[in-house]
């Protein structure tokens, strides 16, 4: 049952493009950031400018949460992921190249973007994932701890 749920989560992540990342400022204020992402299993990667508020927040507190969902007006067909995890900045050049290739495969427009020396890659490793599927039953949610 857990393997089946994990497979659904991995498939859901690989077939969506944007997540809504929640961070907390050093002052304790929540912030939400819409970002494109790629995934390897349950681990997601996002890229951003190193001077953004989200990076400052992660440097202060690496615990984050995010959602991935669909914009469907029918509440009874809603499917989504709610994820809690820990973010780290990737510095390993080989890993950066590997993730960059996956990013270009998912987002071909990235291949045409000029290199940005201020761009960094963030890895988010989940600790708990909730898979919402209201087509099963309104409010249906399954949990996986990783």
TrEMBL record:
GO cellular component: cytosol
Protein name (record): General stress protein 26
Gene3D superfamilies tied to this protein: Electron Transport, Fmn-binding Protein, Chain A (2.30.110.10)
UniProt-listed InterPro entries: F420H2_bilvrd_red/Heme_oxyg (IPR052019), Pyridox_Oxase_N (IPR011576), Split_barrel_FMN-bd (IPR012349)
Naturally occurring in which organism (per UniProt): Methanosarcina thermophila
Domain Pyridoxamine 5'-phosphate oxidase N-terminal, first and last residues per copy: 5-132
Domain of life (superkingdom): Archaea
UniProt entry tagged with the keyword Transcription regulation: no
GO molecular function terms listed in the Swiss-Prot or TrEMBL record: coenzyme F420 binding; oxidoreductase activity, acting on the CH-CH group of donors
Pfam families named among the record's database cross-references: PNPOx_N
Protein keywords: Oxidoreductase
